[in-house]
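thought: fold this chain, then report.
action: predict
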Amino acid sequence: MTAKTYRTLCQLCHSNCGLIVQRNASGELSIQGDPDHPMNRGRCCPKVLANTEILDSPDRLKHPLLKTKTGFKRISWDEALTIAADRLGDIRTRFGPLSLVRCTGAPVSYQGRDGFLEFMGAYGSPNLTGVGNLCMAPRMMAFKSVMGVLRAEPDYDHAELVLFWGGNPLGVERFSSYAAHNGLKEIMPRLKARGVRTIVIDPYLSETAKKADEWVRIQPGGDGALGLAMIHVIINEALYDEGFVGSYTSGFERLRDHVQPFTPGWAEEPTGLPASQIEALSRTYAGSKPAVIHEGNGLDMYTSGVNAVRTIAILIGLTGNIDAPGGNVFMPFPQQAALPTRPTPHKDRIGYKRFPLPFHAPFPVVKEALLNGGEGRPRAMIVHHGNPVLIQANERRTRQALEQLDFLMATDIFPTATTQLADLVLPMTSDFEAYGYRAYSSIEGGFLALAQPAADPVGESRSVFEVEYDLARRMNLGQDYPFHDDRTWIEYMIRPSGVSLGRLEAERVVFATKPVQYRKYVTQGFGTPSGKLEFFSGWFESLGADPLPTYALPAGEPLDAKALEAKGCSLLGASRRPSRFVHTKFKNLEKTAKPYPVPLVYMHPLDAAARKIPDGGAVQVTSPQGRITLKARWTEDTTPGLVWIDFGWGNPTDGQANINVLVSDVFLDPLSGGTPNRLFPCEVLPLG
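observation:
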């Protein structure tokens, strides 16, 4: 084997940093950050080493597996795809195309985003579901309702104030959704060097909060109340941008009347903040123009997430900090092809009547359709790059729901809690074993970057697009398929950008758009029904949802001391993700997991002492839904009465506890189907 150097991408989290991978003559790989990639400029976080550890892991799925009465049996690819084609074809004939569901996880790679999308269109099913109800979808819906777009990225280098709300970008190294800011590790130092004030709104003293100028310790789920109260102050004290509001927005008078009851005094109880602090924060944000708000995933996992983020989007609009230098900007983004090429009617999907606003079917409505039975229930599911058993609230009921399927096919690189339930398991290539790509936005322009394989596929693993096309062909659904493997998929997807795969292979990073142009709304308007930034949402009104943001209990039920006592609990629980991991991944990788081998419950020392729990002691955490065993860790980064429990464990390869055993799936965000994974009643006691 000859030595070789590859310029590629890490696709293990949403940042998709650029990498230089060197392979020596013995086949060993070494990794360093790509200094020329605009996302990271040479920076690598600890997660990057998992790319090579995945290649050598003894846990890898290497062959197709068929579930039998005695366990899983290794079969050939020909057998596996024949079985899948027969089962899915029979279900389509007997129950119709709407009987199939595709379930995915977070699209940290575009292979995860696009796998089996074209297949669903060819099959005739609009039933796409996944983790969206708990991640990003509530925020995208909120921004679209106000601004007509899904994202408004922060323009850090021109801002005078940065407000980090419900996110921990220093911990997870994600400072925006999909925008590059010329080096992840340099963003906070650049802000500090310019004297930019940074404020963090978070119930937990995160890495970002510790580095910020001010930490606003809000109660979990109080974000919507804080947003409404800030709107109240900014309007009543005439701190809004009168020129922008008067020319480019609609619904201001209705918003003004709507927020009159939501005073800072009213917001004290749901936020846990004194009225004086809310007033000061409102004045600081409105008076520090230009200012940026970076909202994070911490806002999604409540039953009030959409409305909370709507208040943030409205605050950005009220202050005129939208698509302006130093504000939240509509960044240029490379154009990509759409999948599926044969779309099916959106209104035919599961749960549309109850949830018409989400772009995909919220997983909880799919789960309830399975549990309730009936002729119209789903019969088959393809789980690709997903692990709903661990991700969704109430593991017990999620398992029960998936067990109602006539056929469950799962694609993955490792055994998971979900593949354990599957009838057919297909081994996928890892990111270092297949081609991929990524589109990014930035002030300098939208650009594309290529990921190329640096190692041969492990065992018989295959790329998802090769498998998808082969399955479609066997079912006579492959006519006019736009791709047949990972390379032709890239060719198809980037064609609208005007960039060829050949150029991308030669240059690796290619800018496909012009640099940012600010205030595009002056000539183009906003993508809302009125063409203006809407405080009163025409989209929501047209679908029967409240056109103005309201406040609701973030867990869907009261969780005061009296309510907790009635449930046999005295604590509130919230989920957290250790920054070295991504969702439910990597816990089985020895080197990656060694510094953090087991999930922990973080408790304030006062709570631990009252229960005689030593630091590091084994504990049992219970809730009305179930119980799990963990180790306790003392910390003053939380408040008494609020414990934080690590999320992401529970696969067969790690053998640890899944936090979502504790979380209720009874109460849902009425707009997005979100569940209160970050706020639930619990009790923590010494084990035994």
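thought: worth noting. The mean pLDDT is 96.
final: tokens above.
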